[in-house]
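Appendix C reproduces, verbatim, an entry submitted by the partner laboratory led by Prof. M.T., so that reviewers can inspect both the input and the predicted structure.
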Amino acid sequence: MCCDSLDQRFLEKFIQQEGLNDIFRRNVIDYFNAYAHRLAQLAEESSRPIIVGLNGAQGSGKSTLSQYLSQIMPMHLGVDCYVLSIDDFYLSRAKRKRLAASVHPLLAIRGVPGTHDVPWLLDALAGFIEPGVQSVTVPIFDKLKDDRTKKVLKIQKSANPTVILFEGWCVGVPAQHQLALSVPASSFEFLNDNNGVWRSYVNERLEADYADVFRLLDRLSMLKPPCFEAVYDWRVDQEIRLVARRRQDSSDLSIRGMSVKQVGEFVENFRRLTCHAIEVLPDLADDTWELQADRLVLEGRCRS
């Protein structure tokens, strides 16, 4: 049986397991399978694991794409592929509360630069490219509980060519110029951060230790939303799927997530940097996929 037939069988099984639709199938056939082969070739040519940043707004499909790649690449391309999500490195709720008390109340809300455990993130990424390290330990964050769990994930390295997919909504995003911080980006910022303390702190962190993280990237890819308004709809859909999956896994129908209104308020924390990423990241990324509102890739660009 040829490789293409094996890939197709795997794709159909993955779509069924994840409850996906024809849009994901079309994106994989038209763009993402070729992307997997490009990454595999880069990994095979490298003397160490390569770190690939995958940027995408909330609900854009970056986690689904990452899971697909992490399964198909070792199965059909002979390349190990591990996924690290920036979301798993969120600070605990207690630490964010302390940060909110000392800097700005909005920092109690997970998401923006400044609410992640950057030292642990740096150690994890560095561990993958250091030949003497045999395993890498990463934290696990529970989004429905909005807190870090006591569990950790230990990833055993191998001698195979390896891709580390580092995915997250702000991965690879550069800091903004000071002039862009001078006025609120929305009514949300006007009401909650009119003096600019929150956005200035976030930008300072992005310019400092987050930049140290992004310098470890060998390649940067972007799932580019058509506009910020699409992100709201995507995030609502993401919350529904998250709750449904958790109920299915635990058989606990009492599990609840955020309401539609709460999701709307939550995504406003991401507006400024999401819009900034839409504007500047396509010029910095090695791969950019322009998404429609239904997440179908309208156009894909790749720098060789």
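The longest strand covers residues 147-156. Additional entries are available on request from the coordinating office.
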